[in-house]
Amino acid sequence: MKDTYRTITKPSEEILYKEKNSKFFGYVFPIQNEDEVKDLLESIKKQHHSARHWCYAWQFGTGQNISYRANDDGEPNNSAGMPIYGQIQSFDLTNTLIVIVRYFGGVKLGVGGLITAYKTAAQMALESSEIIERTIDIIYGLKFEYKDMNKVMRIIKEKNIIIVSQKMELDCFIKISVRQKEAENIKQVFDQLYGVSIKEIDG
């Protein structure tokens, strides 16, 4: 099972692509949810308030839980959003938003010309981005009594498990992060420990 994904580390530099007097400004952003998309689009629209079109595509999630959207923003159907989204797929990325802002230069490009222009601008924006590979992680919560602390911590150390947060009182709670492909094994190890309960939780 594939338990890695590719995404970008930070917003890209602005790129500019010109075609027959039209200007296409390209931006790439890392995102985690749809609410972030709205905020980023608002800021781009403020920055380019006199532009004609703000076309975009995004994708987030991994495996079976992928969401995506492509928006032509007034350009002919599928001439902007889908060519942009095609580049997200071509670079095998997720948790990524691409926005291409178009200033119309007075010369119509036709649908074929638009598809090429939006695709090229999106590609240039991605080429100027830092792309990294990340692991898909499962978050577990461990509950146990303070007296069982040593045996829990010994396993965490042996297996190089990442501790996300911890609360050490009479009743202890540790949140851990485990790579997806190792998750079932780790769960079984803790399941076999007397006095320790483990269950998957949201990050």
UniProtKB/TrEMBL annotation:
InterPro entries: Impact, Impact_N, Impact_N_sf, Ribosomal_Su5_D2-typ_SF
Database matches in Gene3D superfamilies: Impact, N-terminal domain (3.30.230.30)
Domain of life, per lineage: Bacteria
Residue ranges constituting the Impact N-terminal domain according to the UniProt record: 20-126
Pfam family, one: Impact_N
Family recorded in the similarity comment: Belongs to the IMPACT family.
Protein's name according to its UniProt entry: YigZ family protein
